[in-house]
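ok so i was messing around last nite and threw this chain in just to see what happens. nothing serious, just curious
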Amino acid sequence: MPEGPSIVILREQVAQFEGRTMVRAEGSSKDVAMDELAGQPVLALRSFGKHFLIRLGDRALRIHLLMFGTYLINETKAADRAGPRLSLFFDDGSALHFYTCSIKTISDDLDSEYDWRGDVMNDAWSAALALKKLRAQPDTLACDALLDQTIFAGVGNIIKNEVLFRVRIHPLSTVGDIPAAKLRELVAQAREYSFDFLAWKKAGTLKQHWLAHTRKICPRCNISFLRGHLGKTARRSFYCARCQLQYPLTPPRSGSTPRSRKTPPAS
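result:
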C-alpha cells in the first residue's frame, strides 16, 4: 500500500495537469459521474495522507491506491483486463489513468473535508495535536497508534516499523505507558522519517535504508529480529526484543536496570 511520501510523489508527477480542462472521462468506477466531468477545470491537485485529491469546478475526486493501485501518464496498460478505474483526458491531448484503486466523489471544499494538521507530510502538520490524540488513547498499542490515519495520516507499515526501531520502542508498548519524552520523540520521528522516505524513494534507494522492515538481524544488537502480525491492525512488525523497550517496563530487581516485559511469541 503506497504510503504518504509516495502520494506526494504522485502529486508532483501530475502537477502538469493543474489548470487544464478535461474533455472526457471514462473508467469502471461506479462512484464517479463520468459524463459530468467533461469541461471541468482542474483547480488543484493535493494529497492528504494516502489520499490523492483532484479539485474540480464543483466537486473533488478522492483516489486511494489501496494495496496494489497504480497510475500512468499518457500511456495505458495494454494487458490490463479490468482496464482503468478512471481515465481523464485533457484539452492538450494528455491523459491520466488510475488502476486498481478506490475513487470517490467528495465536496470541492477540501478544507472542510480534511484537517491538514493531521497529515505528516503537510506544512500544517501539528505535533501537538498528534500528542493530544495519542494521550486520549492510552490503551492503544504503539504499532496500532502509528497506523491510525486520524493521528498520523500518511504513515504506513514501513514507516511504522522504521520509526519504532529509531526511537527504540517495542511495537506492543501501550501509549499511556510510554514516557512523555519518548512519546514526543515518536511523534517527531513519524514526520522526520516520512521526509527521509520521500528523499530515498526519489533517489531509488529506499530499501537500502531500511534498518528494521523485512530485516532479519538487528543492526544495533546483532541478534535476530522478531516478527509477527501484531495489534488490532495485524500488520507485519519487525523488531528487536533487546533494544526496543516494551512499556510498561517490568519492575527492576534490586540493583538492576528496568527490563522490557517478556515478548509474546511472534505469529
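not much to say yet. The helical segments are 4-13, 110-113, 127-135, 142-145, 157-166, 180-203.
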